[in-house]
Amino acid sequence: MSDWTLLCDFDGTISVEDTTDTLLERFGKPGWEKLEDDWKAGRIGSRECMAGQVALLDMNRAELDKHLTERAIDPGFAAFVAYAKQHDMPIEILSDGLDYAIHFILKHYDFDYLPVTANRLEEVGEREWRLGFPNASPMCRAKSGTCKCTAAARAQGPRGRVLMIGDGASDYCVAEAADFVFAKGKLVDHCRAKKIAHAPIKDFAEALALLPALAAGKLAGAPRAAAAPLPKVVSA
Question: What's the domain count of the chain?
Fold first, then answer.
C-alpha cells in the first residue's frame, strides 16, 4: 500500500457547487446571510455559523432529496478514484459540510463506499433541522464543526503522508499540516502566502495528471514538523 492518504474536501472540490450554499439559497429563512457575513468577518467560527444556518432551513426530506439529486460532481473524479484504488492510495472525504448530503450525492454517483468525515445533519421535525458535531475539537484553530487537522494527523501517523485536496477556508489549517496540497480557489492564495508546498489545480483531471509524480516522490515538499498531540474530539 502507498504511504500516501488522499484527503479530499467535498463542497466545491468534489461537488461542482457548495452544497450547503445551494440549500440555503433555495430553502434558507431570512438571517442566514447575516451569519455568513459574521463568519467571513471572523466574528464567529464556522461551527457556530453552520449550526445557525442549518436551523434556518425550511424544507422536508423529500425536498432535500430532490435538491441533492440535482447536484453535480467533478466529471474527472471517477478517473481520479480509479487511479488511487489501482495504486493503493486510500481516499477519505473530509468536510465541514453536511454528512447526509455528501452520502446522498456520493451514492447517486456510486461512490458511497468512500469514507466520509463531516457534520451530522439531524431531522428534528417535518421541516426542522439541526447540526451535530461529532468531529469537532476544542483545539481547532478555525472553530470548525469538523476538525480536519485531527483526521490529517491520524492519517500521517509516524510514517504516513497526507495529500490534501481542497478549495477554501475550511482547508486552510489542514493544508498547513499536510505533506502536499492540490489547491483550488482561495486555497491557492493561502498556500502561496504561507509558503505551503502545493500544486494549483482547476479540477480532478489536473489532479489525476499529478498523482504519478506525487507517488514517485517528484513533488517535493518541505519536511513536516513533528506531529502535535491529536486534538480531542467532542460531540455536540
Answer: 1
Q: Kindly report, residue by residue over 46-97, the tens digit of the pLDDT.
A: 999 999 999 999 999 999 999 999 999 999 999 999 999 999 999 999 999 9
pLDDT (0 to 100) of residue 124: 97
pLDDT, one tens digit per residue, over 161-178 is 999 999 999 899 899 999
Domain span holding position 203: 4-16+73-124+132-215
**CA–CA gap between residue 97 and residue 166 (Å, rounded):** 13
User: Could you tell me where the beta strands, DSSP code E, fall in the chain?
Assistant: 4-8, 91-98, 116-125, 128-132, 161-166, 180-183, 198-200
Mean pLDDT (whole number) for 140-149: 84
User: Is residue 195 in some structural domain?
Assistant: yes
The one-letter code for the residue type at 71 is R
Strand ordering across the sheet containing 180-183: 128-132, 116-125, 91-98, 4-8, 161-166, 180-183, 198-200
Instruction: Tell me, yes or no, whether 49 lies in a domain.
Output: no
What number of other Cβ atoms are within 10 A of residue 109's Cβ? 14
Tell me if residue 142 falls in helix, strand or coil. coil
**Where residue 236 falls among pLDDT bands split at 50, 70, 90?**
very low
Q: Tell me if 220 is assigned to some domain.
A: no
> Does 82 reside within a domain?
yes
* CATH code for the domain of 143: 3.40.50.1000
Q: Which residues in 154-209 belong to E strands, given as ranges? A: 161-166, 180-183, 198-200
